[in-house]
């Protein structure tokens, strides 16, 4: 407040006005609204307003609170404004409901109800916003609908009666063209049908709602009654007269021409047609004959109309079938006299079916409606635990109502079933209403949670504004984002209000991190440029590359970036360095892949071995293998070895002998002899080599007690053990570690080479020459593998041929066909083959069953099932013969015993299976 007394503006003394202390005075409406005006936040104020609205306050209180609250918080005042709007709409709907209720009562009270007025009342009431689903309009709507249904049903029954009258008249007309006895037999049935028709027509005219039927229907019913009665009253006397004429020849004939001619023929009189023809014969007044074209055209026209009616009737189109039936009757009136009886019968059958279709369609539509009513009632009375949720119930009700609309389009409406269906749907809709209320409540809770999260983000941003833990900041921002996404569902309108607030708060919290990321990007781009420069340098500096990578890793661990962006930067940083290393590796591989003279020799030898493998000749393959091995050893005379294998074998034998002598001479410990043994191949190649010392005899092994440690003499006494005191040493002189050991020799390991131990008698390593290139190594390895496989295959083939030849010799008892010792292999000695040959030279004799069992035991081969018992018995017998040789040792003699016996298929198969194993062992 400004003071009332004046003060000089030029006064030097400052004016000090102490500010009065602010006191929180409660708002007068806080007690009414539960403290909504004193709430700290907008969310809390809105929550208290909702709680207050749940108590159903009066309209005056709502207006007063809205007036005060709209200037403070429009968001919280929105709920109060919506409640005021609901009250206003409710008052308006009550007045509208009363107005339209009076109109409906006037319609129902009128003696004549127009269907158009009733339908217009429901349509106009819905347009005016009248609550048709509430009382009393809902009850009035059902009453009007029932009244309309009754009127429509009367009109439909009039049409059915009209069609029935036409059909009865047609039946009578058809009977008048048949014999009178058929008409007399159908008389009682026709009398009952005509009486029933008259009763139904009387019920229609006596109905209370007959006055409300449209004006065009009563004349139709009267005309049908008049026409039917005229035909019926003429038909009854004619039938009675025909019956009397049949009994009494003097009785008059009936007026029906067909019956009269039939009775004349029965009396022996000429018929009227023949009499007329005889009378008109002199005058030649004959009825003009109809042209065949006219008859064919008439029949075609009737058939087309008949086909149309049958098609519409089969498809169940009630309205279209009625029109098609009318068209067929019109065509029949014009062309009916030119068609035959069969086509006329088809026409009458089609007309009868079309008349029944309309009634059937109404019944079918009612069946669909009853099914829908049952489904709607089943939604309420579902078993426990199988109740539908809110959304599923809403979709189901919508589908049921759509199906009801489709049923109404196909047939006449049924208002009684509609009432039951609507009541069941409304009862089931309560579940949807409860679900919608739950969704609204959850939306309010989710809104409060999201507002609280926005406030939390703002507070966190102020608290961590100076933080440099960018990883923690990034993690917290991601957590906030996850919580916002998991905050629950809210409406689109509410989300559009909250989303800008969230973006503003999260942008404020992420501003320091974005600035740090921008600086980090600049540093990383600079490191990428350095990597490009290092990669383009002619000499790759490994230390600089490592230092640069460490700087990159440090930067990446300090300031996090988006994963995809960081991966792209890393790829750009790594690309020039990887290219530099790839160039270096390519240069190294290029230098390695250059073929040397030795590699070319190995490649040529590998190709020669592959060619030998293709021939399938074992000798050529072995010769090529030897040539390749010579090329691998790097011998200069590899080509000469392939040309003269004999000289190569002699030189190789001499080299092996010299190497053995050198290895034996190395036992005395002379280093020069060991060097000569290591270079055995070089010594064999040089003719003027130094003479090799004779091998030193092996010293006897004598058990000597003493120190057997390396470097210690065998006859020296062992050094004393460690004393009891920790300071005592084994040599008695502390500080001299090697005092107890003997003096070292000139070599590093003393006299260790003088011993003939495990290292002294080992031959020196063979000089393998320079290392092979990758291409040469792979070529020789593959060639060797292919050669081994080919040799194995050839050996298997030779083995199989040998067995086949032996089996043939046994079968033919021809010793000349027994394979040679070389073909049989090293397992068969010459004496064994001789025994086999001698066995085949004589006639078959003896039993080979025991010999075959011994052979199967020696080869560990299975025995046929019928001989298993004999094999077990033989095994038990062999257990008792401890000094007898085992079957493995005598299988050659057992084969000779088998060959001495007679040959048969089973024994030959068993012997062949056994020899497959024994000849390979």
Gyration radius from CA atoms, angstroms: 62 Å
Beta content? under 5%
In whole angstroms, the N-to-C terminal distance is: 125 Å
How many distinct helices?
33
* Average predicted local confidence, pLDDT: 76
Uncertain runs? 1-23, 281-287, 636-642, 652-698, 701-709, 712-760
Oligomer status: single chain
Label this structure with key terms.
about 900 residues, mainly alpha, disordered N terminus
What does this protein look like?
There is one protein chain. This protein is mainly α and 921 residues long. The chain contains 33 helices and no strands. The longest helix has 49 residues, at 415-463. The chain is flat, with a radius of gyration of 62 Å. The termini are far apart. 18% of the residues are buried.
Topology of helices and strands:
Layout: H1 30-33, H2 42-53, H3 59-69, H4 74-109, H5 115-128, H6 137-176, H7 180-185, H8 187-205, H9 217-247, H10 257-267, H11 272-280, H12 292-315, H13 318-335, H14 341-380, H15 390-410, H16 415-463, H17 470-485, H18 492-536, H19 542-558, H20 563-593, H21 597-615, H22 618-633, H23 638-643, H24 645-665, H25 671-678, H26 680-685, H27 774-812, H28 821-824, H29 830-841, H30 849-859, H31 868-880, H32 891-900, H33 905-918
Helix pairs in contact: 2-4, 3-4, 4-5, 4-6, 5-6, 6-8, 6-9, 6-14, 8-9, 12-13, 12-14, 13-14, 14-15, 14-16, 15-16, 16-18, 17-18, 18-19, 18-20, 21-22, 21-27, 22-27, 24-25, 27-33, 29-32, 30-32, 30-33
Structure, briefly:
Helices cover 69% and strands 0% of the residues.
């Amino acid at each position: 407040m400004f003071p009332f007394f004046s003060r000089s503006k030029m006064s030097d003394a400052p004016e000090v006005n102490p500010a009065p202390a602010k006191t929180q005075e409660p708002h007068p409406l806080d007690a009414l609204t539960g403290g909504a005006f004193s709430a700290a936040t907008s969310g809390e104020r809105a929550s208290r307003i909702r709680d207050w609205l749940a108590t159903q306050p009066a309209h005056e209180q709502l207006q007063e609170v809205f007036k005060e609250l709209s200037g403070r918080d429009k968001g919280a005042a929105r709920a109060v404004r919506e409640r005021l709007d609901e009250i206003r709409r409710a008052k308006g709907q009550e007045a509208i409901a009363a107005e339209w209720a009076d109109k409906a009562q006037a319609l129902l009270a009128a003696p004549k109800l127009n269907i158009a007025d009733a339908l217009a009342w429901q349509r106009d009431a819905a347009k005016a916003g009248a609550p048709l689903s509430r009382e009393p309009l809902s009850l009035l709507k059902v009453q009007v609908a029932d009244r309309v249904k009754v009127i429509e049903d009367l009109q439909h029954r009039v049409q059915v009666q009209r069609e029935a009258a036409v059909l009865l008249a047609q039946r009578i007309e058809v009977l008048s063209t048949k014999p009178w006895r058929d008409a007399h037999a159908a008389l009682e049935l026709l009398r009952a049908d005509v009486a029933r028709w008259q009763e139904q027509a009387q019920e229609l005219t006596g109905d209370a709602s007959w006055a409300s039927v449209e004006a065009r229907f009563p004349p139709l019913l009267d005309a049908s009654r008049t026409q039917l009665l005229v035909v019926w009253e003429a038909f009854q006397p004619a039938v009675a007269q025909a019956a009397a004429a049949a009994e009494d020849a003097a009785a008059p004939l009936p007026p029906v021409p067909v019956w009269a001619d039939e009775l004349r023929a029965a009396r022996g009189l000429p018929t009227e047609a023949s009499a007329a023809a005889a009378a008109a014969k002199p005058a030649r007044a004959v009825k003009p004959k109809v042209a065949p074209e006219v008859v064919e055209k008439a029949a075609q026209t009737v058939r087309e109309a008949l086909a149309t009616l049958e098609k519409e009737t089969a498809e169940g189109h009630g309205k279209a079938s009625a029109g098609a039936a009318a068209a067929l009757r019109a065509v029949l009136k014009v062309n009916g006299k030119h068609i035959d009886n069969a086509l006329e019968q088809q026409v009458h059958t089609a007309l009868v079916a079309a008349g029944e279709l309309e009634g059937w369609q109404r019944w079918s539509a009612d069946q669909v409606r009853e099914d829908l009513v049952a489904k709607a009632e089943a939604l309420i009375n579902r078993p426990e635990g199988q109740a539908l949720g809110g959304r599923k119930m809403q979709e189901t009700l919508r589908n049921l109502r759509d199906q009801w609309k489709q049923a109404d389009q196909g047939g006449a409406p049924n208002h009684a079933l509609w009432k039951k269906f609507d009541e069941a749907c409304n009862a089931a809709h309560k579940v949807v209403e409860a679900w919608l209320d739950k969704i609204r409540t959850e939306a309010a809770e989710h809104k409060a949670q999201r507002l609280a999260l926005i406030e939390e983000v703002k507070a966190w941003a102020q608290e961590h504004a100076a933080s440099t833990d960018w990883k923690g900041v990034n993690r917290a921002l991601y957590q906030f984002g996850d919580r916002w996404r998991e905050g629950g569902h809210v409406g689109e309108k509410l989300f559009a209000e909250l989303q800008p607030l969230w973006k503003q708060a999260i942008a404020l919290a992420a501003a320091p991190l974005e600035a740090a990321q921008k600086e980090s990007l600049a540093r990383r781009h600079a490191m990428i440029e350095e990597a490009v420069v290092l990669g383009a340098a002619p000499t790759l500096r490994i230390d600089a590359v490592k230092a640069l990578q460490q700087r990159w890793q440090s930067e990446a661990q300090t300031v996090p970036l988006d994963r995809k962006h960081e991966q792209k930067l890393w790829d750009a940083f790594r690309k020039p360095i990887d290219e530099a290393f790839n160039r270096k590796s390519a240069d190294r591989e290029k230098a390695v892949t250059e073929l040397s003279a030795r590699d070319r020799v190995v490649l040529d030898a590998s190709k020669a071995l592959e060619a030998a493998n293709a021939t399938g000749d074992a000798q050529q393959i072995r010769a090529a293998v030897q040539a390749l091995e010579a090329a691998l050893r790097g011998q200069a005379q590899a080509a000469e070895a392939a040309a003269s294998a004999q000289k190569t074998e002699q030189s190789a034998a001499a080299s092996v002998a010299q190497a053995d002598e050198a290895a034996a001479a190395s036992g005395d410990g002379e280093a020069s002899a060991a060097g000569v043994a290591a270079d055995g191949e070089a010594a064999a190649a040089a003719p003027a080599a130094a003479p090799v010392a004779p091998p030193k005899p092996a010293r006897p092994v004598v058990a000597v007690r003493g120190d057997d440690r390396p470097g210690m003499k065998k006859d020296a006494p062992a050094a004393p053990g460690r004393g009891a005191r920790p300071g005592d040493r084994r040599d008695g002189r502390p500080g001299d570690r090697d005092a107890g050991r003997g003096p070292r020799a000139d070599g590093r390991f003393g006299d260790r080479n003088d011993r003939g131990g495990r290292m002294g008698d080992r031959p020196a390593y063979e000089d393998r020459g320079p290392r092979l290139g990758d291409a040469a190594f792979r070529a020789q390895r593959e060639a060797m593998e292919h050669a081994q496989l080919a040799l194995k295959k050839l050996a298997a083939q030779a083995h199989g041929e040998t067995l086949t030849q032996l089996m043939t010799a046994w079968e033919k008892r021809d010793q000349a066909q027994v394979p040679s010792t070389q073909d049989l292999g090293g397992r068969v000695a010459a004496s064994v083959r001789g025994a086999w040959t001698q066995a085949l030279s004589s006639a078959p004799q003896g039993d080979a069953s025991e010999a075959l069992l011994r052979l199967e035991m020696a080869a560990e081969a299975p025995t046929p099932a019928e001989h298993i018992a004999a094999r077990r018995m033989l095994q038990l017998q062999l257990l008792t013969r401890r000094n007898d040789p085992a079957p493995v040792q005598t299988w050659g003699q057992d084969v000779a015993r088998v060959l001495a016996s007679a040959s048969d298929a089973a024994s030959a198969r068993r012997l062949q299976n056994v020899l497959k194993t024994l000849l390979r062992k």
